[in-house]
Amino acid sequence: MPITSLTIRNVASYDAVGVTLSNLKKLNFFFGYNGTGKSTIVRCIRNMSLPIAEQLPEYKDCSINGYNSAQELVLVYDEQFRKNNFIDSDKIKGVFSLNQQNAAIDAKIALLETKIAQLTQDNLAIQLRKKDCEEKISAIRHQLVEVCFADRNQFKGFVKATLQYGRNKEQHFEHIKEILKSSPITTTFTDIANDYNKFYEQEIKIINLNIEERLCNDFIFAEQNLNNWLEKIIVGKDSVDIADLIKKLNMTSWVNEGRIYLDKVNEKCPFCQQPLVDKNELRMKLNSFFDDNFQASIQAIKDAGNTYHIAYEVLKKRLIQLKEHAPLVAKLCDDLLVQINNIYQKNLDVVRQKIAQPNEIKPIIACCDIDKKIQIINQQIEKNNTDAQNIETLKQEWIVKCWSLMALDLKENVLRYQRKEKYVEQKLKPIYELHSQIIESKLAYYKQQIELLRQQTINTKEAVDNINNILSSVGFTDFTIEEIPSSTVSTQYRLKRISSTSSTNVYHSLSEGEKTFISFLYFYQLCIGTDNMSNSTLKKIVIIDDPISSLDSQILFIVSSIIHKLDIQDITNKHTFKDTGISQIILLTHNLYFYKEISFDRRPFCKDVMHYRVYKPGGFSKIEYSNKAYPTDDYSLLWKSVKESKDVIGIDENRNIMVCNVMRRIIDSYVNFIGLLQGAGNPTWSAINSLPTTDPRYIVASSFISQINDESHGITPFDSTYYGKVIRQDTSTLYAAFKLIFDEIGQDHYNMMMR
Predict the structure, then answer these.
(1) Between vectors from CA 335 to CA 330 and to CA 340, what angle results, nearest 5°?
(2) Residue 94 and residue 494: Cα distance in Å, rounded?
(3) Which pTM was predicted?
(4) 678: closest CA among 648, 647, 705, 704?
(5) Could you give the CA distance from residue 471 to residue 468 in angstroms, rounded to a whole number?
(6) pLDDT at 30
(7) pLDDT grade, residue 665 (50/70/90)?
(8) Is 449 within 8 Å of 186 (Cβ atoms)?
């Protein structure tokens, strides 16, 4: 199948809009002057025919349709072809011509080619399905990579810490997967935030204070000892006759306190206010009741209370020190201080009550869990000191926690992707690869069979003789092409000058016309044969770009005749080529004579044909097409170029230079053709006689007319006065001045040509 459409944009002189040719035929003629963009067409097609890995990036916005590399081979003749085959070496790769007489072999090859084509399509379908699976997985992966990377945003406030892979989303994603292979640390964002403040924002220092165990033990022991005394019932001596009464009435404390008043009264009892019979006897009985044991117990209570007080003060002092010097445990210390102080104050009242009423049980309020709370404070201090000594390790552990939190956040997403990826890798891809391997094996076998068959039809000598015969027939008798003996399958030629025995590159000694002709003859043999047995079954798309450089008229005619051998129509179907090995021909030239010669419609070439004109209005290449040949005279083309730029608005110096030059050539040609007088008597001057010199049309028209009175392709001294102003005029001014002149010298002609 030939190329059916071609799009060229954003390359060379083709702009972003570009051109799209959707009507390419089997035979295509392109005409355009040098610099209009013809060679870009050739280079674009050549590039698009290469494997994707070899295509140049500048043609990324270009495309072709219809071309199938498995069935077709693009052959291009241009300057690059001449360089590749001749300039760098005097050896020419062998051209293999097929033996057209072996019909049986051709039939076998055709059958194998059909099988290859079908297998190629099958393999392509498999590869497309495989690619589709891979693209879907890739899309899922890309989305997941973005999601994973976005999860970092929750840590963006931790400016003093740095997580790895902040500039590489892929590495970030791979690290997340590696973490999930193990068991990530379970943590929360709150924990991470707290640790960040501790490790990065706060300055961790060693705390050299703590609460020694003995301080806690001393306080607890003092508390327990005091409580033991407070729970004892302390009474006087039982043998005293008043003991029963004191105990019965529970007046031990009252009586004990009242003893001091015996010495202060004489007649009445301080307890009952009755007359005293014998004060000394009463004193003796009371002293006997409140003996040394009683007094010792009371003193023991006071001593226990004092010990309790000392232990409290020591512990209190240490807690206050920690509160002031260790902010980390300040609140814990403050809470404990409040607790023990409240209890201590209450227990002081209990001690006073006990001393006043020793015969009553007065248990104190215990300071519960004080040892555990002190232990917590000491543990906090110990942990702080450990953290201070290992701060860098802790920072690394903090980073690990951040990654663990991200991994846990993304776990389900990653696992879901990995399940899909595993299914494709373990189930679908092996199936596709197996089918592809089977097809590739069959393809290799069929191609091997074709190669074996093709070897039977190879005739190298035919191609050599064809080139040498043509050279001889047109007068190139000083050199010839000879085969280089080789033991390899591939055959090579070289140019040999008959009058010389030198083995140097003869090609460099040829004239430009000879080089062009020789290289074209070689290209022609490639078109009717092949230089590679593996490509011998492929249909050919032949592209010829200006093959007539430096050729004289005789050789130009021969080249055009050879081209007609390629494009001649089939005798039974005028819309196909006689040579069934050619599927499409594209011819490009800037030479009007050559274009006329090869496109002359009375020649029996393939009638599935289209004509194209390449031009460059406004600095960008355009292409128009027609099913008929374009005008083949320069004068008509000049008018056509003027019409194409007429509707362009604005000022463009580069475009104006081109437009002015074309207009000058038209005026000069017309004036010479109709025989107008030169010089001041030239009627063209009347076109500007009525215009003020300040009128922009005056400046432009004067420049045009000055050219008529000098050389049509030069710049006159008079013209230079206006030149700088002319190219900076609006395009509409140029056209107004151009029409102004033709209003004087040929208004009807102007109307006809601009129609």
Answers:
(1) 125
(2) 9
(3) 0.45
(4) 705
(5) 5
(6) 93
(7) confident
(8) no
Mean pLDDT of the chain: 78
SS3 label, residue 30? strand
Query: pLDDT per residue over 360-370, tens digit each?
Result: 777 877 777 88
Q: What is the pLDDT of residues 512-570, one digit of tens each?
A: 777 788 888 888 988 887 766 667 778 999 999 988 766 666 677 788 888 888 888 88
Distances (CA, A) of 681 to 193, 352, 563, 742: 97, 145, 52, 16
Both structure tokens of 483: 């085969």
Q: Cα–Cα distance between 415 and 395 in angstroms, integer?
A: 29
Burial of 358 (0-12, 13-18, 19+ CB in 10 A): buried
Burial 645-661 (b: 16+ CB within 10 A, else e): beebeeebeebbebbbe
- CA–CA gap between residue 416 and residue 421 (Å, rounded): 9
Q: If DSSP codes are grouped into helix, strand and coil, which group holds residue 68?
A: coil
The answer to whether the beta carbons of residues 116 and 446 sit under 8 Å apart is yes
The residue that leads in pLDDT, 493 or 190, is 190
Which residue bears the tokens 């608005």?
649
pLDDT at 272: 65
Regarding predicted confidence, which is higher, 298 or 649?
Answer: 298
pLDDT at 248: 52
Give dist(CA 173, CA 518) in Å, integer: 61
Quickly tell me which residue has 């044991």 as its tokens.
293
Long-range contacts of 179-188 (CB under 8 A, 24+ apart): 179/403, 179/404, 179/407, 180/407, 180/411, 180/414, 180/415, 184/403, 184/404, 184/405, 184/407, 184/408, 185/400, 185/401, 185/404, 186/404, 186/408, 187/401, 187/404, 187/405, 188/405
The encoded tokens of residue 208 equal 């050299």
Q: DSSP secondary-structure letter at 364?
A: P
- If DSSP states are collapsed to H, E and C, what string results for 421-462? HHHHHHHHHHHHHHHHHHHHHHHHHHHHHHHHHHHCCEEHHH
The neighbouring-strand residues paired with 7 are: 20, 63
Residue 398 pLDDT exceeds 70: yes
Q: What is the pLDDT of residue 588?
A: 93
Judged by average pLDDT, the poorest of 182-191, 313-322, 456-465 is 456-465
How far apart CA 596 and CA 645 sit, in angstroms, is: 25
pLDDT of the residue at 40: 94
Tokens of 350: 């209990």
The distance of Cα 33 from the centroid of its chain, to the nearest Å, equals 41
- Sequence-distant (6+) residues with CB within 8 A of 119 are 439, 442, 443, 446
Tokens of residue 534, six digits = 């593996």
Strand partners, 615: 622
The terminus-to-terminus CA distance of the chain in angstroms comes to: 40
Indicate if the alpha-carbon torsion angle 505, 506, 511, 517 is positive or negative. negative
Q: What is the mean pLDDT of residues 612-624?
A: 86
